[in-house]
Amino acid sequence: xxxxxxxxVILGGGFGGLYTALNLSRLPWTPAEKPExxxxxxxxRFVFAPLLYELVTDELQTWEIAPPFVELLAxxxxxxxxxxxxxxxxxxxxxHLDDEGxxxxxxxxxxxxxxxxxxxxxxxxxxxxxxxxxxxxxxxxRERLRKLENSDADKIRVAVVGGxxxxxxxxxxxxxxxxxxxxxRIVDRHDTILRNSPEFNRNAAQQALRDRGVWLDLETxxxxxxxxxxxxxxREQVDEIPVELVLWTVGTTVAPVxxxxxxxxxxxxxxxxxxxxxxxxxxxxxALGDVAATCDINGQRIxxxxxxxxxxxxxxxxxxxxxxxxxxxxxxxxxxxxxxMTLGLDNATLSGLGxxxxxxxxxxxxxxxxxxxxxxxxxxxKVGLNWIVEPFRSLIA
Length: 397
Prior knowledge:
alpha/beta; six-stranded mixed β-sheet
């Protein structure tokens, strides 16, 4: 054992990576055990993804849902490095970044780089469709809407590809923002929206979409996207439909640098781990979130959702700490705490733990639940105070 502190490198600043880093900083390290923790992300801001939809409707501000990493880590000893990962040398325990700095050496490595929305495979998607995963995506959508709203177009036609949570939530937000000018459609290749969600949520979503006049193209595939059309295939018939905006919310893929690693991987390219979140055959490496294929202690496959990443981050931090301080590691016990989704302005649905809510009350409950989940107490306080003051500010204005 050397005299230097252990070096923990965490790749990815999403829910899995950031919350693992923060949890690690709060664990009871002795002065002799205290490690160097470095968090790496290609962006300068953390994104609280479940609230990203509120940027499009101006319900929330960027600083509330996407605070800078340097601000979140200001009261910790966690070092932040903004860079993309070029390669990982498993044998030499080095991470090579694209910022021309020195490679990062590690004793424990946490892989939490999240997923990407695949835009290849269908003509025109990469050039003309907008994914909805980052703050930059939300800005692009908002700017495109602003131009369309300021144009003399009678109708604003939007196609949202994907009938999962993301597609349904953004469709409802867009319908409320555009009002009578909006012509929104959801395109999905399955026979129902939200096919893996509880029936209560699915029924509430279907009603919210009907109330807003959102058209559903189910059992339909996209064959091409151009600057002003989308081609849809239903059974054997292909129709070309005029459209001003296409949002792509389908699928998740892991980054190429992850796929290139010499690990056992799932058919989706995710890294296989044990229930303690250790990479198979590499006990000093941990993986969580979208890049990991993990089953908990009961054999339950962990979904790639925000709430799963929250829970994994608790275990990942504990197990990294335990592996460095010669304590027993804990296998993950995943608890499904239910699901929440926004269904437009001041409307949401919430189900889980024996509770089912929809409407304005669910909207408030969802906001409070996410306020509690914001990364640091300081940020929670700032956002919470703003949510209290903002209605009075708007009333005075």
